[in-house]
Amino acid sequence: MAKSYPDSTFIGVDIANVFPNDNLPPNVSFSIMDISKPLDFKDNSLDFVNSRLLLGGLQKEKWATMLTEWYRIVKPGGIVQLMEVDFMAADIVPGAERFIKGLHDLMEERGLDFFVAVKLPALLRCNGFNVVERNARKMEFYGTDLSKMVADNWDRLNLGFKGGLVKYICPEDPDSYEVLLEGGIKACIEQRWFKRAVGVVGRKPV
Predict the structure, then answer these.
(1) Based on the number of CB atoms within 10 Å of its own CB, is 2 exposed (0-12), middle (13-18) or buried (19 or more)?
(2) Which residue ranges run through the membrane (predicted)?
């Protein structure tokens, strides 16, 4: 984005120092911030705020707090854009069901909102924004080169959460986790299951 729009300034934030530092364009910088707390930006100072895939780290009660803070820092007429995943967009296929349910139960245990993707328009409206656009696109496990990336992403997600998911997936035989995951992904491909990426755009009233 910084290379495509050299006349704009881009600031990336994360709770951890996971930022790139090589060959950065002069119009991009990074800062460590916790988005569930007040942000180090002045009132009405930003034109655009973008986020994606916060459902795995932002507690349910903190979504409203975050959006209230976004409303403070975005200029009148400014835009906020969120993208999250709807895991329930299609009927769950046998073989993958235990991983979907396990992810749901783990997120509930940690106070996260498994269903936040479908709540984004309401969250924006409740925090003062006008919803100007909503898009939902299939993330298929089959048929295209992109679908291979979707399947790989799902594999990495479940491997990354393995420490927490094992007790929901296979508590009696933890060593079978990877085999069950492989079988679940195969079932998703064969039975044409998909997730859905939900993108919502809100505008701060002028």
Answers:
(1) middle
(2) none
**Strands 74-86 vs 194-203: parallel, antiparallel or unpaired:** antiparallel
Please write the tens of the pLDDT for every residue from 29-70.
Answer: 999 999 999 999 999 999 999 999 999 889 999 999 999 999
192: number of Cβ within 10 Å: 13
Helix (H, G, I), strand (E, B) or coil at 81: strand
Eight-state DSSP code of residue 89: S
Residue 46 makes CB contacts below 8 A (sequence gap 6+) with: 73, 74, 75, 78
Closest CA to 103 of 55, 38, 45, 174: 55
Name the 3-class secondary structure at 191: coil
Asked whether 102 and 168 are in contact (CB, 8 A), the reply is yes
